[in-house]
Design brief:
With 338 residues, the protein is α/β, with parallel strands linked by helices. The chain has 3 domains: 128 residues, Rossmann fold (3-Layer(aba) Sandwich); 102 residues, Rossmann fold (3-Layer(aba) Sandwich), CATH 3.40.50.10800; 74 residues, NadA-like (Rossmann fold), CATH 3.40.50.10800. Helix content is 44%, strand content 14%. It contains 16 helices and 12 strands. The protein has a 4-stranded parallel sheet with strand order 2-1-3-4, with helices on both faces. Helix 2 runs parallel beside helix 15, helix 4 runs parallel beside helix 5 and helix 5 packs across helix 16. It starts with a helix and ends with a helix. Bound molecules: 1,3-dihydroxyacetonephosphate and iron/sulfur cluster (SF4).
């Protein structure tokens, strides 16, 4: 078998068994330069979420929150979308722009929140509330999107929920923490699916309170996926983009950041004179890294661009059903100037 064919066969077997290409790379290869070359050669756009490792953020064409990434994926003219994020994000890109090849460094980069809401169970839950409309957080599978009336992200959830008349009963899935927060700010009483993000659920109120005593000038900024006791004491609550912008415009010099640590890279780049302290979790581990997001590495990124796999493939019927509520979200967001 010639080498090229053997490599492609190994690539296929790797993706099937491991979810990513496990090909040994020449350790002297300059991955940054190689990724830049592939972007040009393949007319590829590299979209990365803020929770990706700093090296990946540094080679991306666009870094953003879930709404920004979906908007970029929808409008790109590139031939290939390389999605450095988790599966539901790359799947959303494919749903919105199906003529593009969408690749992801590791197909097994999932999401605990998305996994907490299996479509078959959610369908039954929905049947128990026949008069309710469904608002689903974008952190869910295409199967859940297809069962939803509209999708939202952490940056537009308030606008999306308020687009329904006040007396319209709503289900909010899958994140109970974001749902409870939106109930509070909108005065609604949405029925909540009992899902949560493993990263945002582990912050320790006790340790954060002690940290605030040691850093009295520091502001606590939190993602709305955090639990209510953390949100209650936060100085600012927002999506990853919202948190980043807040640290750029606010006058404080120190912040305790209650979200995944990847965002600190952009915060430190934008405001090198300020101090950013990751909020401590309630376990002995010092890190609040998302194990799913951090499955992606620069090596896997390079390999997925070079061999154009793992690729997101979807059934057309499911794609069209999942697209409707995402399109609705994008329309409402545009009208709201987001
Ligand atoms: P945003 O970047 O949209 O705030 O979402 C955070 C998150 O947890 C993504 O998985
Ligand atoms: Fe999912 Fe939480 Fe990881 Fe985001 S940070 S991908 S919500 S597990």
């Amino acid at each position: 078998m010639n080498t090229e064919k053997a490599i492609l066969e190994q690539a296929k077997a790797d993706v099937e068994s491991k979810g990513f290409l496990d090909i040994d790379l020449d350790p002297t290869l300059d991955l940054f330069a190689a990724i830049e070359r592939l972007k040009k050669e393949k007319n590829a756009v590299l979209l990365a979420h803020y929770y990706q490792e700093p090296d990946i953020q540094d080679v991306a064409n666009y870094i953003g929150d879930s709404l920004g990434l979906a908007q970029q994926a929808e409008k790109t003219n590139a031939d290939m979308i390389v999605f450095a994020g988790v599966h539901f994000m790359a799947e959303t890109a494919k749903i919105l722009n199906p003529s593009k090849k969408v690749v992801i460094p590791d197909l097994k980069a999932g999401c605990s929140l998305s996994d907490s809401c299996p479509p078959a169970l959610f369908k039954k839950f929905k049947e128990q509330h026949p008069d309710h409309k469904v608002v689903s957080y974008i952190n869910c599978s295409a199967g859940i999107k297809a069962l939803s009336d509209v999708i939202c992200t952490s940056s537009n959830a308030k606008f999306i929920v308020e687009s329904f008349p006040k007396d319209q009963p709503l289900i909010f899935a899958p994140d109970k923490n974001l749902g409870a927060y939106i109930n509070k700010v909108t005065g609604r009483n949405m029925v909540l699916w009992n899902g949560a993000c493993m990263v945002h659920e582990i912050f320790s109120l006790e340790k954060i309170t002690k940290l605030k005593v040691r850093h009295p000038e520091a502001k606590l900024i939190a993602h709305p996926e955090c639990e209510e006791p953390i949100l209650r004491i936060a100085d600012y609550i927002g999506s990853t983009t919202g948190l980043l912008k807040y640290t750029q415009t606010d006058s404080a010099q120190e912040y305790i950041v209650a979200t995944e640590t990847g965002i600190l890279h952009q915060m430190m780049k934008a405001s090198p004179e300020k101090t950013f302290i990751p909020a401590p979790p309630n376990n002995s581990c010092a890190c609040n890294d998302c194990p799913h997001m951090k499955l992606n590495t620069l090596e896997k990124l390079y390999l997925c661009m070079e061999y154009e796999t793992p690729e997101i493939i979807m059934e057309e019927e499911l794609r069209l059903a999942a697209k409707k509520p995402i399109d609705r979200m994008l329309e409402i967001s545009k009208a709201a100037g987001l």
